[in-house]
Design goal:
The chain is mainly alpha-helical. It has 3 helices and 2 strands. It starts with a strand and ends with a helix.
Length: 110
């Protein structure tokens, strides 16, 4: 079972296995981005708690350091997500709207 007509000489023909691998990679990229968001929110919450509820100067500095680190983690996660998403699109041609039921797309391409 193949995707694509293969009529053009330079056109890539994706097999079902390759199509599914592209989808798994796309979803793994989204999971990684959500993990970065979760980590950034955790660092932000702990950092704000340390800086607001404790009066010891070292804990206040540590809290604000964690707040700054949370912003850095979020920015790096977003950068990595966008870079990987572009790479996936260039390799497979998949866009977020095409991540769906493989059987529906198989029927359309026949």
């Amino acid at each position: 079972m193949k995707f694509g007509s293969g009529s053009k000489p330079n056109q890539k023909v994706l097999y079902v296995r390759d199509e599914l691998a592209g989808r798994r990679t796309f979803l793994a990229n989204e999971r990684t981005f959500m993990a970065a968001i979760r980590t950034a929110l955790s660092l932000l919450a702990v950092g704000l708690a340390l800086s607001r509820f404790f009066l010891h100067p070292i804990l206040v500095v540590l809290g604000w350091f964690m707040v700054v680190t949370s912003v850095a983690v979020l920015v790096f996660g977003l950068y990595n997500y966008i870079k990987t998403r572009r790479m996936i699109y260039l390799e497979t041609g998949l866009t977020p709207g095409e991540i769906g039921n493989i059987h529906e797309q198989t029927k359309k391409k026949k």
